[in-house]
């Protein structure tokens, strides 16, 4: 795992996994980490966030009183390349009570890159074969 000062980089079909340490005397249940894309790399703050581009990573604390919950999501075609900042953690306890942790510190950022090879040659279809 990279040092905390490095930004983790992912591409299509990679699984993004982010461990979050949480505690609740009723037990930690469902957890969502909400990441928003930065309009410009490294531009932190409300104006630097794209309001229309979010990713929600999900996990479950299995009702443990203290849990390291691994929230995750698979990078898909629809995810826009760029840097994503965690802006909130939404956590439920085993009784369904929700806590919203806004702008968790220290902050967590990851980067999605588009590594699909682009060329000007088109695929030719010759038939079904056989």
Q: Layout of helices and strands, plus pairs?
A:
Layout: E1 8-10, E2 15-38, E3 49-74, E4 82-93, E5 98-102, E6 109-112
Parallel strand pairs: 1-6
Antiparallel strand pairs: 2-3, 2-4, 4-5, 4-6
Rg calculated over all Cα atoms? 18 Å
Unreliable stretches: none
Mean pLDDT: 88
What's the CATH class, please? Mainly Beta
Within the CATH hierarchy, at the fold level, what is the topology?
Immunoglobulin-like
Total of DSSP H or I helical runs spanning 4+ residues: 0
Largest sheet composition: 6 strands, mixed
N-to-C span? 48 Å
CATH architecture: Sandwich
Number of domains: 1
Any idea what the shape is? globular
Secondary structural class: mainly beta
Q: What percent of residues adopt helix (DSSP H or I)? A: under 10%
The SSE order reads: EEEEEE
Q: What portion of the residues fall into strands of 2 or more residues? A: over 45%
Number of strands: 6
Structural write-up:
- The protein has 130 residues and is an all-beta fold.
- The chain has a single domain, classed as Immunoglobulin-like (Sandwich), CATH 2.60.40.
- Helix content is 0%, strand content 57%.
- It has no helices and 6 strands.
- Strands 1, 2, 3, 4, 5 and 6 form a 6-stranded mixed sheet that branches.
- A hairpin with a 4-residue loop joins strand 4 and strand 5.
- The protein starts with 7 loop residues before the first strand and ends in an 18-residue tail after the last strand.
- The model has no long low-confidence stretch (mean pLDDT 88).
List the main descriptive attributes of the protein structure presented here.
6 strands; Immunoglobulin-like; 6-stranded mixed sheet; globular; mainly beta; 130 residues
